[in-house]
Amino acid sequence: xxxxxSRDGGTTYTSITLEDAGxxxxxxxxxxxxxxxxxxxxxxxxxxxxxxxxxxxxxxIHGVSLQWA
Length: 69
Fold this sequence. Notes:
4-stranded antiparallel sheet
């Protein structure tokens, strides 16, 4: 699973390295992946977008959150 983020409406994307943060509950089931990216090299803007790409199309996404500071 590849995650990317843009701050200029999707013209320029930066890849996000996703890390395994465990399971939603217990020790099996839905996994939580987290990551961050530095977007200071992108053109300025505030129109945030993200995209997820799958190499094998077997992922089921249950929720996404995007935050910036």
